[in-house]
Design goal:
Length: 122
């Protein structure tokens, strides 16, 4: 299906997976200080719309409703659901939250849907 002019170019599962691996390396390094590991992702999502991994692969988080920057509360909600998905990833339901992005028309995982965000190519 051809992309409509002006329609967002949603970032798919695999490019987001690469960004996730990069970010998890950073989180592990920052986890030497517990606070650093807990605030890295939500703070970067809120202030920059991207984590370092997302910057490296050219992906950005925006509001689903209008494509604008996300708020601190959206970043927090997204992070909480992201953590729940990660902790639950040892069972099928948890993995489903992440894999959902591969099948959703807007390439959104459950943490995107809960926070009202989408990832687009920057």
């Amino acid at each position: 299906m051809a992309q409509q002019v002006g329609a967002p170019n949603y970032a798919g599962f695999w490019i987001r997976f690469v960004a996730y691996i990069i970010d998890m390396i950073i989180v592990v390094i920052l986890s030497i200080t517990v606070i650093g590991g807990l605030i890295y992702l939500p703070l970067m999502w809120w202030k920059k719309g991207q984590s370092v991994g997302m910057m490296l692969v050219g992906v950005k988080i925006v509001r689903a409703v209008d494509g604008g920057p996300i708020t601190g509360s959206m970043a927090f909600i997204r992070f909480i659901v992201f953590i729940v998905e990660g902790l639950a990833s040892y069972i099928l339901i948890g993995l489903l939250g992440f894999i959902w992005a591969a099948f959703d028309s807007r390439k959104r995982a459950w943490h995107d849907i809960a926070a009202g965000t989408v990832c687009i190519h920057a």
